Amino acid sequence: MTDPGVPASAPPAPTTLGELRDSGAVFRPVKAEIRANLLARLGAGEPSLPGIVGFEDTVVPEVERALIAGHDLVLLGERGQGKTRLIRTLVGLLDEWTPVLTGSELNEHPLQPISVWAHRQIAEHGDATPVGWLHRSDRFGEKLATPDTSVGDLIGDVDPIKVAEGRTLGDPETVHYGLVPRTNRGIFSVNELPDLAERIQVALLNVLEERDIQIRGYRVRLPLDLLLVASANPEDYTNRGRIITPLKDRFGAEVRTHYPIELADEVRLLHQEADTAWLGGDGQGRGHLERPLVPEHLVEIVARFTRLVRDSNHVDQRSGVSARFAIAGLETVAASAVRRAAVAGETRPVARVVDLPSVVPASRGKVEFADSGADPDDERELEILEHLLRQATAQTFRARCAGLDLTGLQEHFTGGETVESGELVPAAALLGQLGTIPRLAELLGRLGVPEGEQSAEQAAAAVEFALEGLYLTRRLAKDTDGPRTVYGS
User: Fold this and answer.
1) What distance in Å separates the CA atoms of residue 351 and residue 458, rounded to the nearest whole number?
2) What is the pLDDT of residue 285?
3) What is the CATH number of domain 17-256?
4) Inter-axis angle of helices 59-69 and 30-44, to 10 degrees?
5) 180-210 confidence digits (pLDDT tens)
6) Which of 180, 242, 320, 443 is the most exposed place for a label (fewest CB within 10 A)?
7) How far is Cα 222 from Cα 104, in angstroms, rounded to an integer?
8) How far apart are CA 49 and CA 91, in angstroms?
9) Which residues of 37-49 are buried (b: 16+ CB within 10 A; e: fewer)?
10) How far is 269 from 218, CA to CA, in rounded Å?
11) What distance in Å separates the CA atoms of residue 43 and residue 40, rounded to the nearest whole number?
């Protein structure tokens, strides 16, 4: 699937209205265009909304039905559920190129002009009227609803300069168009719609139903052609405002989003969204290190940690825990590994269990705790997150190492020996304290490290995970003092 924001082909050849007619082009409304392209994808067995994870059997079918029905829609869901990502993905369902009248502020189709200006252009130039081509990436507009948003921002207002030039107030060409008309023949999104003042929401009523706009007391008849999509938090969470009933009624479909239901979807989302590439060197002067590696068992721990925080009684369930919580956590783990590699002189940063505690202070601000009256510096919040992180680590250890014989590793400590680790202890130093490790290859294989790709850094990550698992299952002791961690019998 090509990136809808990157042209995959050159624009078509016609550059005048006459050439466009001769090419057999026809006008097709935006919703019909989206419907046809969506049905073509479904018929070809392609994903209709590529990159949307965890919604395949729930949200996506509802969105598909709404688009096929030609409905404007509103997405309801807590923060970080992928609403904005889903809306932007809809752009990929538009035709890659569409013809427009050159110079039109409203992206008017040459065969379907709607403004006074466009009709005059065609009357003056006829078949020689210039035609340009608009890529689908330029047919998307969005506005984050804020209390200071005005009708002029969304719909438009009278341009005093044009009035001063001698035009009358009733002249449609005195209008300076807002974001919605300028997205004509495209997709327009209003994010966090309830935050829009109710008197401003009223301005959208005609856009949704009659498909025209009213400015400064006189009617500008513009049959706009667009798909309007809005996002909002559920009303029981958003206390800042609400969607007025007449506007809510005009949306053809309301779709509820959710957090990933399955752990596997949470992990897939992390792999897709976490940006770890910039942390390592890439040959562009950003450093001498390779791209950091976060082993799969650590990705699973971060995913489980996110789900435990989301389900915790200590966390405000109305607020939710954003997917950005997990993404930022994974990026922090990778950054900790890069920092160790830079200090210790390792060329391949590989994250280890010792990097996980860095997630807690970094992610604390992304969680709304249920006791809103608590001191924001209350250490109890850190204790809750640390406990849930240990719980996530223990769950992952049991899931990945069940039935694995770790007695050989455990016997290393029977004589009172200890193993010291820490966020700046390199892999070689950690492994050197253990010597020959029984069944290491079996442990690496269980954790998904392919044979032939095993390195000292990956071995250290696997061994430290096993040590932490033995501690969490009460088979080893552990003493933590700041960045220093000591495992013993």
Assistant:
1) 8
2) 38
3) 3.40.50.300
4) 130
5) 999 999 999 999 998 888 888 888 888 887 7
6) 242
7) 13
8) 10
9) bbeebeeeeeebb
10) 49
11) 5
